[in-house]
Amino acid sequence: MKVLVNNKETELAEGSTVADLARQLELPAQGVAIALHNRMVPRTQWEEQTLQPGDSLVIIKAACGG
């Protein structure tokens, strides 16, 4: 199935979760937030939040600096 990640089409297996997406994209274990349809998904729900074809996700990475 195809989903949009930061406005880029990404292919995932049917029934994938937010956690599956994070693993596929090799996201770091810390400093990352994921929003599904502009709503933040708590990390505790990543394993159970199933994605659907056409879902829109935004990945936000924390940055240091000033």
Automatic annotation (TrEMBL):
Note the InterPro entries from the entry: Beta-grasp_dom_sf (IPR012675), Mopterin_synth/thiamin_S_b (IPR016155), Thi_S (IPR010035), ThiS/MoaD-like (IPR003749)
What Pfam families is this protein classified in? Answer: ThiS
Q: Which NCBIfam families match?
A: thiS
UniProt protein name: Sulfur carrier protein ThiS
Ranked from the top, the taxonomy reads: Bacteria, Pseudomonadati, Bacteroidota, Bacteroidia, Bacteroidales
Gene symbol? thiS
